[in-house]
Amino acid sequence: MKENLDNAGVARKVATLLALPVAERTIELQLMAVNFAGWMEQNFNLLEHQSQQLDRMPIDVREQLGKSISNYLMRGFAVQFQKDEKEKEDPDYKELSTLGLELWEEPEPEQAWSPLFFRIHYRYPQA
Length: 127
Description:
By secondary structure, this protein is α/β, with parallel strands linked by helices. It has helices at residues 7-19, 22-34, 36-43, 48-56, 59-74; strands spanning 3-4, 44-45, 80-83, 94-99, 117-122. The chain has one domain (3-122). Strands 3-5-4 form a three-stranded mixed beta sheet. It has a two-stranded parallel ribbon with strand order 1-2. It is globular and about 45 Å long.
Protein backbone atom coordinates (compact mmCIF):
# COMPACT_ATOMS: atom_id res chain seq x y z
CA MET A 1 0.00 0.00 0.00
CA LYS A 2 1.29 3.45 -0.90
CA GLU A 3 1.69 5.97 1.89
CA ASN A 4 1.60 9.74 1.81
CA LEU A 5 4.98 11.46 2.02
CA ASP A 6 4.29 13.05 5.37
CA ASN A 7 5.31 12.35 8.96
CA ALA A 8 2.63 9.72 9.59
CA GLY A 9 3.05 8.03 6.19
CA VAL A 10 6.82 7.71 6.52
CA ALA A 11 6.45 6.38 10.08
CA ARG A 12 3.98 3.73 8.87
CA LYS A 13 6.26 2.70 5.98
CA VAL A 14 9.29 2.44 8.29
CA ALA A 15 7.29 0.35 10.78
CA THR A 16 6.06 -1.92 7.96
CA LEU A 17 9.60 -2.44 6.66
CA LEU A 18 11.00 -3.18 10.11
CA ALA A 19 8.20 -5.70 10.75
CA LEU A 20 9.08 -7.76 7.67
CA PRO A 21 10.97 -11.01 8.10
CA VAL A 22 14.69 -10.42 7.51
CA ALA A 23 14.69 -12.13 4.08
CA GLU A 24 11.78 -10.01 2.81
CA ARG A 25 13.21 -6.84 4.34
CA THR A 26 16.55 -7.55 2.65
CA ILE A 27 14.91 -7.83 -0.78
CA GLU A 28 12.84 -4.68 -0.27
CA LEU A 29 15.81 -2.68 0.96
CA GLN A 30 18.02 -3.87 -1.89
CA LEU A 31 15.40 -2.47 -4.27
CA MET A 32 15.59 0.83 -2.39
CA ALA A 33 19.39 0.86 -2.51
CA VAL A 34 19.64 0.30 -6.28
CA ASN A 35 16.74 2.52 -7.41
CA PHE A 36 15.74 4.99 -4.72
CA ALA A 37 13.52 7.14 -6.96
CA GLY A 38 11.69 4.09 -8.33
CA TRP A 39 11.25 2.67 -4.85
CA MET A 40 9.80 5.99 -3.65
CA GLU A 41 7.37 6.04 -6.61
CA GLN A 42 6.20 2.50 -5.77
CA ASN A 43 5.80 3.11 -2.04
CA PHE A 44 4.54 6.68 -1.68
CA ASN A 45 1.71 8.74 -3.17
CA LEU A 46 4.00 11.37 -4.64
CA LEU A 47 2.67 14.57 -6.11
CA GLU A 48 3.88 15.45 -9.60
CA HIS A 49 6.35 18.05 -8.32
CA GLN A 50 7.74 15.54 -5.79
CA SER A 51 8.38 13.01 -8.58
CA GLN A 52 10.04 15.73 -10.64
CA GLN A 53 12.24 16.74 -7.70
CA LEU A 54 13.38 13.12 -7.32
CA ASP A 55 14.15 12.94 -11.04
CA ARG A 56 16.13 16.22 -10.92
CA MET A 57 18.09 15.16 -7.86
CA PRO A 58 21.72 14.34 -8.75
CA ILE A 59 22.24 10.62 -9.25
CA ASP A 60 24.93 10.45 -6.56
CA VAL A 61 22.55 12.00 -4.02
CA ARG A 62 19.78 9.52 -4.90
CA GLU A 63 22.28 6.67 -4.59
CA GLN A 64 23.51 7.96 -1.23
CA LEU A 65 19.94 8.26 0.07
CA GLY A 66 19.03 4.76 -1.10
CA LYS A 67 22.13 3.11 0.33
CA SER A 68 22.14 4.96 3.64
CA ILE A 69 18.44 4.49 4.39
CA SER A 70 18.61 0.85 3.32
CA ASN A 71 21.65 0.13 5.50
CA TYR A 72 20.10 1.87 8.48
CA LEU A 73 16.79 0.02 8.21
CA MET A 74 18.57 -3.29 7.64
CA ARG A 75 20.18 -2.87 11.05
CA GLY A 76 16.67 -2.60 12.52
CA PHE A 77 16.78 1.11 13.30
CA ALA A 78 13.83 3.42 12.62
CA VAL A 79 14.71 6.37 10.39
CA GLN A 80 13.73 9.67 11.95
CA PHE A 81 11.76 11.89 9.56
CA GLN A 82 10.16 15.30 9.97
CA LYS A 83 8.33 17.21 7.28
CA ASP A 84 7.29 20.72 8.24
CA GLU A 85 3.97 22.21 7.24
CA LYS A 86 4.24 24.57 4.31
CA GLU A 87 2.89 28.08 4.27
CA LYS A 88 2.48 28.25 0.48
CA GLU A 89 2.08 25.80 -2.39
CA ASP A 90 5.50 26.52 -3.85
CA PRO A 91 7.89 23.55 -3.96
CA ASP A 92 10.83 25.75 -5.01
CA TYR A 93 11.56 26.75 -1.42
CA LYS A 94 11.86 23.18 -0.11
CA GLU A 95 15.08 22.09 1.56
CA LEU A 96 16.22 18.68 2.76
CA SER A 97 18.44 18.51 5.82
CA THR A 98 20.05 15.28 6.92
CA LEU A 99 22.05 13.96 9.84
CA GLY A 100 24.10 10.78 9.62
CA LEU A 101 23.64 10.21 5.89
CA GLU A 102 27.36 9.88 5.11
CA LEU A 103 27.94 7.54 8.04
CA TRP A 104 25.41 4.97 6.80
CA GLU A 105 26.57 4.63 3.17
CA GLU A 106 28.42 1.46 4.15
CA PRO A 107 26.55 -1.56 5.61
CA GLU A 108 28.87 -1.65 8.64
CA PRO A 109 29.57 1.98 9.60
CA GLU A 110 32.30 2.85 12.06
CA GLN A 111 29.86 4.84 14.19
CA ALA A 112 26.84 2.53 14.20
CA TRP A 113 25.31 4.49 17.07
CA SER A 114 24.67 7.54 14.89
CA PRO A 115 21.02 8.25 14.12
CA LEU A 116 19.75 8.85 10.60
CA PHE A 117 17.52 11.90 10.49
CA PHE A 118 15.76 13.71 7.64
CA ARG A 119 13.90 16.98 7.73
CA ILE A 120 12.04 18.62 4.88
CA HIS A 121 11.52 22.27 5.61
CA TYR A 122 10.54 25.37 3.69
CA ARG A 123 12.38 28.67 3.46
CA TYR A 124 10.49 31.51 1.89
CA PRO A 125 12.03 34.76 0.68
CA GLN A 126 11.57 37.67 3.02
CA ALA A 127 8.86 40.00 1.79
